Sequence to fold (145 residues):
Amino acid sequence: MAQKPIYVINGPNLNRLGKREPEIYGTTTLVQVEAMCRKAAGKRPLRFHQSNIEGEIVNFIHQAIDKGAGIVINPAGYSFTSVPILDALKMFPGPIIELHISNIHRREAIYHNSLVSKAATAVIAGLGPRGYALAVRALLEMLES
Ligand code: DHK
Fold:
């Protein structure tokens, strides 16, 4: 039977990774992040999405609820504001890793309280873009055990 995919879901402004505040987010592009995720996933199918629109992110999470094995999500700015994204994640039965490229706890106060963490199995913050590949590998281990 085909393995259920891992969903990697990205929120607003992450389409501009590489050019966006490189002193905070680095110079790696989202296309490069996707390649890192696919390499880390190995044989496990992977769906990679990004949207600047809250409802589209909710729809990606619904796709994962129906077809996915695990979620890595960087909700970006919606981490701190979005009850709809939190509500959608609460419906997901598998492991969820919340990911932030930067260490949000070392930044301005607006970035300190992520609503999404209430639904996350684990949170990675501050490892830079490499955190995505580590999150995918951690999901693989959780799914295999
Ligand atoms: C990305 C964003 O766009 C910010 O709004 C978050 C997160 C931090 C990140 O570090 O990946 O606060």
Remarks:
- Helices lie at 22-25, 30-41, 54-67, 83-90, 130-144.
- DSSP finds five helices and five strands in the chain.
- The pocket of 3-dehydroshikimate is lined by residues 13, 74, 76-77, 100-102, 104, 111 (CB under 6 Å).
